[in-house]
UniProtKB/TrEMBL annotation:
<feature type="domain" description="Glucosamine/galactosamine-6-phosphate isomerase">
    <location>
        <begin position="5"/>
        <end position="227"/>
    </location>
</feature>
<protein>
    <recommendedName>
        <fullName>Glucosamine-6-phosphate deaminase</fullName>
    </recommendedName>
</protein>
<feature type="active site" description="For ring-opening step">
    <location>
        <position position="146"/>
    </location>
</feature>
<comment type="function">
    <text>Catalyzes the reversible isomerization-deamination of glucosamine 6-phosphate (GlcN6P) to form fructose 6-phosphate (Fru6P) and ammonium ion.</text>
</comment>
<feature type="active site" description="Proton acceptor; for enolization step">
    <location>
        <position position="68"/>
    </location>
</feature>
<comment type="similarity">
    <text>Belongs to the glucosamine/galactosamine-6-phosphate isomerase family. NagB subfamily.</text>
</comment>
<feature type="active site" description="Proton acceptor; for ring-opening step">
    <location>
        <position position="141"/>
    </location>
</feature>
């Protein structure tokens, strides 16, 4: 779906999330949201905050799972995805703190495997993710599933691609300060979501969007795996869609 600009697109995505939350509320059920970081979803979160503050949308029945976190990473570091999510969304809404799940960048390496399995299990015990937000990295990664990721991969520790670290270097004051690893939900984890919404804005995403949507399905560009799912929607602005 191509929108004139990212503002209109983001309001639409926020409304979809709000509708899921309200439908679940009406039935006394919990809404399970899969959330992403990066510049791409910022306006969706801004609109959700507005809906909370101005239209009384409550997040009390919401449980969230973030896609990924750098490793190692302290939660209170300015570049952590915990800090990002607090600043852009969680500090401004009424989601119960115990309902927020973000991969833990402070774990010792030998605890990671069991932690990742428990992260997956927690999602499935709740009946799965109702709606999963995704951005796309210039390597074609979703979450931090870099080139080489398998379509059935689960939540795990991964090594970041050089281009991904270069793209993150501004946040860290130089590529050498960007962690070399990350924890990420797998492609298989993402695929289990009932609805998947990949958003991309601006000209600089046009090339990778074209490859993801029209290219041959390959582990070289993990976002091409999304072609295999019927629950995926690409939400683009005209610039990101300009090479389609
Ligand atoms: C990071 C995140 C991804 C995100 C990507 C794109 O690598 N782990 O989840 O999709 O960046 O970032 P941006 O939205 O800033 O372009």
């Amino acid at each position: 779906k191509v929108y004139a600009n990212q503002d209109e697109a983001s309001v639409d995505v926020a409304n979809r999330i709000a509708n899921i939350i309200k439908e679940k509320q009406a039935k006394g059920e919990t809404a399970v949201l899969g959330l992403a970081t990066g510049a791409t979803p910022v306006k969706v979160y801004k609109e959700l905050v507005r809906l909370h503050k101005e239209e009384g949308l409550s997040f009390k029945n919401v449980i969230t799972f973030n896609l990924d976190e750098y490793y190692p990473m302290k939660p209170d570091a300015p570049q952590s995805y915990v800090t990002f999510m607090n600043k852009n969304l969680f500090d401004h809404i009424d989601v119960p703190k115990e309902n927020i799940n973000i991969p833990d960048g402070t774990l010792p390496e030998d605890a990671i495997h069991a932690y990742c399995e428990a992260y997956e299990q927690k999602i499935s015990n709740l009946g799965g993710i109702d709606i999963q937000l995704l951005g796309i990295g210039r390597t074609g990664h979703i979450g931090f599933n870099e080139p080489g990721s398998a379509p059935n991969s689960g939540t795990r520790l991964v090594v970041l691609d050089d281009l991904t670290r270069r793209d993150a270097s501004r946040d860290f004051g130089g590529k050498e300060n960007v962690p070399t690893k990350a924890l990420t939900m797998g492609v298989g984890t993402i695929f289990k979501a009932k609805e998947i919404v990949l958003m991309a804005w601006n000209e600089k995403k046009a090339e990778i969007v074209k490859k993801a949507v029209e290219g041959e399905i390959s582990s070289d560009i993990p976002a091409t795996y999304l072609q295999l799912s019927s629950s995926v929607e690409f939400i683009l602005d005209t610039d990101a869609a300009s090479q389609l």
